[in-house]
Amino acid sequence: MSITGKIEVQDKDILGALGAFFKRVLETDDINAILVPQHLSMKNMVMPTLVTDPEQLNGVDPLAPAFPMNAAKIVSRLTRKQMGSKIAVVLRPCEIRAFVELVKLKQGQMDEVMLIGMDCLGAFQNKDYLQYVDRHGDKSTERFYQDVLDGKQADIEGATLASACMSCENPVPTNADILIGLFGVEIADYLLVQSQSKRGTNLLNQMHMTEIPEPASRQDAITAIVAQRIACRDEMFVRTRAATDSLEKMTAYLANCVNCYNCRVACPVCYCKECVFVTDVFNHDPSQYLRWANRKGVIKMPTDTLFFHLTRLAHMSTACVGCGQCSNACPNGIPVMELFRTISQSTQRAFEYEAGKSIQQEPPLSVFYEDEFPEVVGINS
Amino acid sequence: MQDFEPTIIAFVCNWCTYTAADLAGTSRLTYPKNVRLIRVMCTGMVDPQYVIKAFLEGADGVLISGCHPGDCHYINGNYKARRRIKLLKEILPQFGFEPERLRLTWIGASDGIQFAEIMDELVDQVKALGPNQAKLKMVI
Fold it and tell me: Is the CB of A244 inside 8 Å of chain B's CB atoms?
């Protein structure tokens, strides 16, 4: 049984209201710690913090347009073995989806975490966030969510939402235990809180939330924002396909790549503990480079750039949740997210799979059926 | 393109298709010299990466060939291979690699004649496609 309640907002202080709510979550008997994005005291940057002392929740800011990492990796780190305690984690929808993928790959477990998902307003790229926060200081988060909820989309006071966020059709969390809703809600007065699972309901019951019906405007607001995002996404797919549909274009697309592999490090679902591209397999014999160069007279150094990206597509595109951290991590401004999302859409559709959507459905490359894909077998298909 | 001789990399499983190739040889059947066989223990061990590497190095065609469904020496490796080929056939064509360059077949240990026939036909098909784009251009 789902419960819908509200978090009262005093004096339009939404972050204060969220902080108070998380404090109450932390004070319940069930929860021993909470992972939540907070402003760091030493610098105006928002990072995930693991809090056990309710008094240390003063900088809570899950609405800041900062997305320094996909925190699914952090939650995986906290849950890869039994912790012996229960924690609540406050995540964006794409972080929850990535965590679901990691759980399915046995790199995390759900038993000891209470997932608190928030309606996601999106975020800037790291560089843009730092500039934005410089310009607007303490008021930056407030300005941001007000602008987004007022309907501003791309250009927000000189900064632009990350293109991953603009083309994200999942701004509302799924698979959370507790959802905090903003869309279609009068956030100056209250925030919506809703349980999406049995244990979420139990927790809200313990907290004695004031129950309210879901506001009638909510579904319409969500439908509108999703439609806008899908239009943006589909336009991005068309653009990216056109920019990569031959080897020549693809090499131009990735020409800035210096094989730093930051995209792989930032990717929450790049699941290998040791990537083959950093092993000795790619520590080629010096004479090998000359043999390669001799073949066409020239090779680009470092080698294996396209090989790396295509391999990554083959390995993780069925698990890609579109969080855009790959683009965020690229030092040379390659639109990595666009490429990976575009290809992922095809690969996930081929296996009727949607990354992060269902905890039950097995990852496509870990299962098989006797009678499937006859079209790929034989030399006349 | 008359004198184009394609290079085809074939990953063949030890228990079925490699044995079939051996049978073709001992039966003195001929098949085109364009095919380079790489013996693997099972098609289930062919990482998509191997196929990508072959294409980026300029292979004009890649064949993965193993045991018929139900005959896999390791019970189900060929089913896993089939999913990986499905995946690659979604990815590679988006970058201009014709899907016909990548093939998956089941050739059993006793199918020496079929092995030779399939190699003949495969080479003809790849010849008709022309050289792989990666052969001619700089690949980063």
Answer: yes
